[in-house]
Specification:
Blueprint (H helix, E strand, L loop, with lengths): L1 E6 L14 H8 L11 E5 L5 E4 L5 H6 L18 E5 L5 H4 L1 H4 L6 E5 L1 H10 L2 H6 L4 E5 L5 E5 L2 E7 L18 E7 L5 E5 L7 H7 L4 E5 L7 H4 L21 H6 L6 E4 L13 H8 L3 E2 L5 E3 L1
Length: about 300
């Protein structure tokens, strides 16, 4: 299968429009090696003809234009046939769902989401109700633990990712608020796990990573107090629903012990020093054989 990283930054992108933190300043003025990034999303295909989008970021238009494989085939009649088959959502966060509204010009949209995510987007943010005013929306319920075929031997199994983050809409008492996806190519048997949001690598979550060939994982913050130290937030990374990379119990320590053949950090916040290619933190990851995603990265698994 092929995986295309469309966007690799957390909400707000990199640089973030209202931020002058050290990485944002560096990427703007070119004082240190760093590359701009759009907001987190990937596209997956088994044949490079039919593609499935995992999360629809607010940058989806630019991301599709930057990926020729996602361009419409067109024709002499001006047809608008596109290779995008469906969108799979990990949660209802705005930076993962606002792009749905930008896909409204199509003849219809297939959206895979848990019941909790669907209800938030319908009754909380009203995003789905707004979208339905422009085009038909077919909702495919995502049930953690159930294998779902997509196309050409490609399938997925969602798994629940526990979170204590306070939801902006609804009570947050239901399961399925955040899920990861394990995508499998039936022909090769190889699997990719997409886990852009994770608060703790629990035994159940780690079990979903077993024998996967590639993991795209939450790299939001390097340290738990990163935003606190910069004076940009009043909560730690964990309190915001993201496991930090460094420190005891951080994702680097936990993932290094799992031995996944290829681990790529994505959903990287603009404050995270790993965005700077000459940063000591970046070298630490590289010494562990881990990578930092960049927009346009293509993986063949």
């Amino acid at each position: 299968m092929w995986v295309r990283v469309l966007g690799s930054a957390a909400g707000g992108g990199f640089p973030q429009w209202n931020c002058a933190c050290p990485p944002c300043r560096a990427v703007r003025d070119g004082s240190r090696p760093a590359r701009p990034r759009t907001q987190s999303s990937i596209a997956v295909s088994a044949d490079r003809r039919r593609w499935f989008l995992l999360n629809a970021s607010p940058d989806v238009h630019a991301q599709i234009e930057a990926c020729p494989a996602l361009h419409p085939a067109g024709g002499p009649d001006g047809s608008r046939g596109v290779p995008l088959q469906a969108v799979l959502l990990t949660d209802a966060e705005l930076d993962h769902t606002l792009g749905l509204l930008l896909l409204r010009e199509g003849s219809g949209l297939v959206v895979h989401a848990t019941e909790a995510t669907r209800d938030t987007l319908y009754d909380g943010t009203a995003l789905l109700r707004t979208l339905e005013a422009y085009c038909p929306v077919e909702w495919r319920p995502v049930v953690p633990g159930v294998d779902v075929p997509l196309a050409d031997g490609l399938s997925y199994r969602a798994f629940d990712v526990p979170t204590t983050k306070r939801p902006r809409f609804g009570s947050g008492s239901r399961g399925g608020r955040v899920v990861g996806y394990r995508l499998t190519d039936g022909r090769s048997g190889r699997a990719v796990v997409h886990l852009p949001v994770v608060q703790e690598l629990t035994p159940a979550v780690c079990a979903e990573l077993e024998d996967c060939s590639c993991l795209l994982v939450d790299g939001t913050c390097w340290s738990d107090d990163e935003l606190l130290r910069l004076g940009l937030a009043r909560r730690t990374a964990r309190e915001m629903g993201h496991l930090p990379i460094s420190g005891p119990g951080g994702s680097l320590e936990r993932l290094a012990a799992l031995g996944v053949p290829r681990t790529v950090y994505t959903h990287v916040n603009n404050t995270n020093p790993i965005l700077l290619e000459d940063a000591p933190e970046r070298r630490v990851l590289e010494q562990h054989g881990m990578e930092v995603a960049v927009d346009g990265l293509e993986l063949e698994v």
